[in-house]
Amino acid sequence: GNNNFQVMYNGAMKLGYKHCSTGRMAINSRARAGRAQCMQLGFCFQGCKMGAKWSTLYTEIPAAEATGKLELRTQAHAVRIEHDAKGRASAVVYADAKGQLHRQKGRIIAIAGNAIETPRLLLNSSSTLFPHGLANGSGMVGKHYMRHTTGSVFAEFSDPVHFYRGTIMAGLISDEVHFNPDRGFVGGYEMETISLGPSFMAAFFKPGAWGKDFTRVMDNYTHLAGMWLVGEDMPRESNRITLSDNTKDRFGIPVANVHYDDHPNDIAMREHAFKQGSAVYEAVGALKTHRVPPYPSTHNMGTCRMSLKEADGVCNKHGQC
Ligand code: SF4
Predict the structure, then answer these.
(1) How far apart are CA 276 and CA 279, in angstroms?
(2) Which end of the chain is more exposed for a tag (fewer CB within 10 A), N or C?
(3) Is residue 47 very low, low, confident or very high in pLDDT (cuts 50, 70, 90)?
(4) 56 within a domain of the structure (yes/no)
């Protein structure tokens, strides 16, 4: 655990939390599989200069290519999935880098476009047989978009912490994960260490901030500790991806509209997490703690949910539809 973790760990213990650890990370602690070990350089969000941090881009893909059984067509954009007369998916039409359309037939088609582009592709693949889009007999494609309830707490200390050294997510507190509606919300959350590079910090520490209070925090960059709060958000039908009526991409395909509202449960959870996160740092002598709103990026989830019943889901427990 790096310094940022030590500060969080000591605060957690003082507060009476029992479950605080460096957790499990897909990062080499020693050289392995042709990749170096973590050198604790920090700023991992920029990409790992050592190659210690796992990434599909340089781990699985080169290994899969080496088998000779994987062909990767880069800069290809799927625009439509086609189906046969029985309604079974049969081909993907995609545009190459020059915008030229190609048709790739397939017996099985797997879509891995994340929670926004996956429903967009299904909805844009409507046909006479499936006027509301593919796999959308239930009308659930695009619905129940989720992104985690988040926020951060940063704390100023009199001594240097150098929170940017070492892995960013260097450990977590999981005492608040359990289900306990007595706290005023259902579901739970974790507190994980986080550090931001100076430019990210300046932009999102307090969006729009200006003046002495703000510059003092930036001047104290080396004396900060930080944690990210991440909890379960509510799967709501009204939080959803739809197709835009008037905006199209360069291939003439409607882009996705994203709609998301916080549920009162999310707000209550965030409030609780802010309070507990601040208490962790106050327990080890923080001079000041700061509540930082969610960053403008999310863990995209949902939108093609699994269900035992066809009527209220998009795919079965194996992800098939
Ligand atoms: S600290 Fe992060 S970026 Fe640096 S070597 Fe370790 S995993 Fe890679």
Answers:
(1) 5
(2) N
(3) confident
(4) no
| Residue 62 domain-assigned (yes or no) | no
Please check whether residue 8 is in contact with residue 193, taking contact to mean a CB–CB distance below 8 angstroms: yes
Q: Is 40 in the pocket of ligand 1 (CB under 6 A)?
A: yes
CA of 37 from ligand 1 middle (Å) equals: 8
CATH of the domain at 14: 3.30.410
- Euclidean distance between CA atoms 153 and 281, whole angstroms: 9
Q: How far apart are CA 318 and CA 190, in angstroms?
A: 28
CA–CA separation, 57 and 68 (whole Å): 17
In a domain, 223, yes or no: yes
Encode 29-54: b = buried (16+ Cβ within 10 Å), e = exposed: eeeeeebeebeeebbbeeebebbbbb
| DSSP secondary structure of 197-219 | -HHHHHHHSSTT--SHHHHHHHH
pLDDT of residue 44: 87
Q: Tell me, what amino acid is at 164?
A: Y
Mean pLDDT of 267-291: 98
* Among protein residues, the one whose CA lies closest to atom 8 of ligand 1: 48
Average pLDDT score over the chain: 95
In total, how many domains does the chain have? 2
Alpha helices in the chain (DSSP H): 3-15, 60-66, 114-123, 198-204, 212-219, 264-282
Q: Tell me the average pLDDT across 216-229.
A: 96
